[in-house]
Amino acid sequence: MNQPIWIGLLGFGTVGSGTLRILENRLEDIARRLGRPVKVKKVLVRDVTKPRALPIDPVLLTDNPAEILEDPEISIIVELMGGIHPALEYIKAALSSGKNVVTANKDLMAIHGRELFALAEANGLDLEFEASVAGGIPIIRPLKVCLAGNQIEDIKGIINGTTNFILTKMTQEGSDFSEVLKEAQALGYAEADPTADVEGLDAARKLAILASIAFNTRITLNDVHVEGITKISARDIQYASQMGYTIKLLGIAKETHGKVEARVHPAMIPNSHPLASVNDAFNAIFVKGDAVGETMFYGRGAGDMPTGSAVVGDIIDVARNIINGHTGRLSCTCYHQKPIKSIGEVEGKYYIRLLVTEKPGVLASIAGVFGDEGVSIQTLIQQEQFGNEAEIVLVTHKVQEENLQKALNILSEMPIVEKIGNVIRVEQG
Amino acid sequence: MNQPIWIGLLGFGTVGSGTLRILENRLEDIARRLGRPVKVKKVLVRDVTKPRALPIDPVLLTDNPAEILEDPEISIIVELMGGIHPALEYIKAALSSGKNVVTANKDLMAIHGRELFALAEANGLDLEFEASVAGGIPIIRPLKVCLAGNQIEDIKGIINGTTNFILTKMTQEGSDFSEVLKEAQALGYAEADPTADVEGLDAARKLAILASIAFNTRITLNDVHVEGITKISARDIQYASQMGYTIKLLGIAKETHGKVEARVHPAMIPNSHPLASVNDAFNAIFVKGDAVGETMFYGRGAGDMPTGSAVVGDIIDVARNIINGHTGRLSCTCYHQKPIKSIGEVEGKYYIRLLVTEKPGVLASIAGVFGDEGVSIQTLIQQEQFGNEAEIVLVTHKVQEENLQKALNILSEMPIVEKIGNVIRVEQG
């Protein structure tokens, strides 16, 4: 059987060209591994005449999706276009006509995962998506298979390279957000419109996928509470560092008493936590299971070759299943339906930085407001004076977010409170 | 189909009881995941009357292997006895009679992996062994499947918890090896006879398994060059720290120009390397692939529940294959036969600590010997005087180990060299 397993690529951007490059570089090795070669037959692009960074045989290119989706020789569709439409329609067409699918599309999986899995399962086909979360880092399969004996308790991930690059630079250089954003854009680490990254949306999509697998219940993008890093200032980072903390944009998902919470926001973590030293554009996912304890998966979360590595890993796995007649063996693992915790119900510790009018009794009034709402203060870090203003920094004990928000609402109405500088969650474990 | 998948456990020590505990705790969840429950039918022990830490129904216990190996209802044999005999014979009997095997036995896999795989393959059965390397950390499956598109360039692992605990304590407390070993023994981190751990043998077995998978060629224990940590002194750690390095016992495997090297020895790594902050009994495996770049897998490398987590992950995977009629899908991936590099051929940088007689011209003579053998010196760190002795510490440029050994042999014969205090490899990348 030297007949190739034929692939159709949808999209030929960064990840598409990385994937093709790896498949070409490793052609012989993959053929040896599987007993049959794996080859790209067609690549769908918008404009077949556009010059490409990676040299590609022009006969491979097509702008007609039917040439791929209706080719009976193609058994794996690799969707690397991104976005919801028309990727959703193409994947549905592929699964409906007996083709297996590999995708790196986090937007799609975070919203339409359930229906796509149902379709794959109904047709006995594979739908693999390792590349949709954290680029090259193996995390989907380790969670689905290797850690399957665990009740996962907690996931904390640095799953957006752009924001981790920005926060690392801010920490190392003491600079403010807007300054470092420009630097990141110049270096190609942030896009011209950085919204999806810096506002946490990209991380939220990945977290929805991770949480669904970890807790075996469907979590979609809408279930994730999202805050970005645009409000983090050099001052916050400085205070964090004084207290022995590092600020990271984390995707956090937890199960407590049968309810699941999923949230993306900046957080202070102790410098001794393994995530604290994950710097620059690197990603890492920290997973706590009841049996395995603490584990962490670290690597490059983006880029043509790292993400291509995850795509090709999936392609080889699907090809092996095709050769052995085993496709569809590992389908959706969301066999529970667990309720979602609202952000108000979430418990945590908070760092709060306030600007107040400097006069006697201010501290007492502020402490009184927190006390009335059941928010107890663990540490009062510092009071710094600027003219007739003072900066108060405090860290609360564990409290329900709802109560904290009530206290903050009251504070924000008080004449002595000039400004709530920032509120950042503190994550210990 | 509510018929259970029946398991036979061989061995009921630490990992055996962890495995049983997880299977019992997660019984319902696993049944939901697979559509069928997974249950332990029999457990082979040496003495059925011995009291057990984990309460176990006495009807499960047997001291007769035939009760498990010849039970037609049992479809998965889980071997957790360790050692070569009779584990080897039992596994062969299981595979020959149509039973799938899950094992945590590194000794066995590092020596008899090839024949066991051949037997599993011939019978279309699964042989899974995630727990044999680095306890609960998912590493075998990520290497075999997720990173399959990569040419792996380099593996560096902290894969022995005992020695990592000892080195961490030595670093934090400035104490010498023998002192910390006693502490580790008292805490249960080191065994009464610590030889296999502190001499690097345990790590060497795991490295042989990892290297075989990473480079798709069979590496057995005999192919691994092994040195332990017994000669590391508080002074070496102090010098390392001055130079910005941490000393770790590493398992290193690399492929260069088609040849594979595999070695276990103490090494200095830069403090900024992700492995440098892997402390206490934690393990981590750092993997560099041509596409994925740098990745790291971190977690607990031993213990009843972490290792049990890996065993149960394998059990669930095999059970899924049994249910779907897919066993034997992922067999041996050693489809190459690559030559092994001898330790003399290996290139590296070296830290050398010498005790010499303090008199004029000593440095020149020593530098001369290195120069004659083609060993060039990058840094001369310090000279400290003790009476009429001086300590010379130097780091070489990259050199072939053979040449370094020649220089060291000559030095050790020179009257001005009182003692070669230590020689430790320096690993940069």
Automatic annotation (TrEMBL), chains A, B:
Q: Which domain of life is it from?
A: Bacteria
List of catalytic residues: K206 (proton donor)
Ranges where the ACT domain occurs: 351-429
User: Which pathway does the record list?
Assistant: Amino-acid biosynthesis; L-threonine biosynthesis; L-threonine from L-aspartate: step 3/5; Amino-acid biosynthesis; L-methionine biosynthesis via de novo pathway; L-homoserine from L-aspartate: step 3/3
Q: Which chemical reaction does it catalyze?
A: L-homoserine + NADP(+) = L-aspartate 4-semialdehyde + NADPH + H(+)
Q: Which residues make up the binding site for L-homoserine?
A: E191
User: A Pfam family for this UniProt protein?
Assistant: NAD_binding_3
Residue sites binding NADPH per the record: K106
What EC number(s) are associated with this protein in UniProt?
1.1.1.3
Q: Which family does it belong to?
A: Belongs to the homoserine dehydrogenase family.
- Name of this protein: Homoserine dehydrogenase
**Biological source species:** Heliobacterium mobile
